[in-house]
Every structure is written in structure tokens, then in C-alpha cells.
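Onboarding guide, step 5: your first structure request.
Type a short instruction followed by the sequence, for example:

Predict the 3D structure of this protein.
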Amino acid sequence: MPVQIDAPNGIGLWDEWGLWGSAPNKVAAVQNNDGDTGVIYGHSTGRVRIQLYTFSPIFGVTDPVTAASLSVVAREYDPGNSSGRYLHLQWGTQQDTPYGTNRAPEVHAAAPNYGTYTFNAAGGELALASVNANHGLYYGNNGGTGWEVWCTHIYRTVSFGFGGGGMSMDSQFAHLVGSIAALIGGNLLLREMPRLNRALGNVKLRPDELETAWRAWMAYRHPVFSR
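The system replies with C-alpha cells like these:
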């Protein structure tokens, strides 16, 4: 059964954490587990701060997926003196309150070392619409001098079967076209799909599948969000 592991590729609907270190932006800061080299940080003296990311959408697979999870590598940087400290791993794009339960790892228990904290999706959270939504961190405390958490790495893990109940070479290719969309860059026109089809080796799309693969790629390049 295929497993796809990917780091964020863009900023999501909420962007409230800070950036520290040598990473050029808050996406690059969490794409690799590089310790304090590049991190995002959550800090406040009594308010919620949400940081959400986009991930490469998964296309052409069975809905719902078999398993999915969100993992973060984080540590407490400053314990502060605030009460009610919480860090939730947020799966999906619901705002204002943590989406679901069991998303509050005791990050401060691992201070000052980094620890890996994972949320495992279940039920409706395994639907492709949820898997392909924004994911990230939901941080807060009840005041005081503030509690600061650093996060150096975020990644999503998805296990799935190919759509239609089979694992034909055409189905695998259709999935790969969607999955590598982040690596293509620039603009891809529908008329260029036959050339891309030829360039990717022996696994080919049928002529009637070229437009489907192109539309999947366009959906990645121009996502539509609702709040």
C-alpha cells in the first residue's frame, strides 16, 4: 500500500506564528528537521495563535484514505509563568477552537529537547477533503509572561489505495502527476500534456486521461479555499 510523506508547501488560512533562524520563510523553516537552524515560534501573553500550512493535494486515490497523520517536531523555548498552556495539532481548517480532541501534546515536558508529537486522523478526518485541507498548530495560554514553543519540522503521512479498486499503471501515473505538481513550477497548458506524458517514461496516460491529470495539476496551482 503506497505511503506519501510530505512537508508543507505553502502558508494556509492562518499565519500567526513568528520566524527565527536562517530559514528564508515559515514554509522552509519546517520542511526539514534541522533543530534550531530554522524554526517557527508561538508566543503570546494570553491569546490564541494559529499557524496553518497547505500540503500537496492527493488525487486519484481511494476516498477515504486508509490512514493519515500530522507530526510536528517541537520543544519549549521559554516556560514563562503563564497558566493554561496548550499546543494542539490542528487537522483541517476549522478556526477559533481546536478541531476535535486529543491534539494537546505536553511539549513543555520535553524541554529543552525536541520531541516528535503526532496526531492520527480517524473517521471523517480520513476523507480526501480533510486530508487535503490546511493543517498546522494551535497555540495559547492564559497570560503571564508568556510561554514560547519552537517548531522545527512538520509533516503529513498518508496511506492509501489507488482509486477504482485497482493499481493499474495508468492509475499510478494519474496519481503521480498530481503528487509531483509542486515540482513542475510555472504554467502548464493542456496542450503540453502529451509532451509531459512522453517525458515521464514508460508509464503512460490514455488520451482521455490527459485532461483529468491537467485539471488535477491546475487545482493544485490555484486552490480554492472557503472559510
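Each response can be followed by summary notes, for example: The longest helix spans residues 210-221.
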